[in-house]
Design a protein that fits this description.
The protein is mainly alpha-helical. 39% of the residues lie in helices and 6% in strands. It binds zinc ion.
């Protein structure tokens, strides 16, 4: 009685599909672009080069953005000024 798998004959010759999968897995390196992504988190802009980023950081547009964020941060809501006052008036006895 033989309980051998039917695919035993393919042991030497690799399945073409399997071969393709392996080639695909090993052929394409899973390394992303080595070039670091330079971006300005304030302005949500990405740059292709460091010099570009530098120029942006020195630019007026970026400065204005930063200023705007700082002012909005340092300034609390006007409505939250002071603790809420209880509506308790001197009731007539
Ligand atoms: Zn910026």
């Amino acid at each position: 009685m033989q309980l051998q798998a039917p695919s035993d004959a393919d042991e030497k010759e690799m399945d073409p599909v399997q071969k393709a999968v392996i080639n695909h897995t090993f052929g394409v390196p899973l390394v992303k672009t080595k070039r670091p992504v330079i971006s300005c988190n304030v302005c949500q802009i990405r740059f292709n080069s460091e010099s570009q980023a530098e120029a942006h950081y020195k630019g007026n547009r970026h400065a204005r953005r930063v200023k705007g964020i700082e002012t909005s941060k340092s300034r609390p809501h006007d409505a939250d000024k002071g603790p809420p006052r209880p509506h308790r008036l001197a009731l007539p006895a």
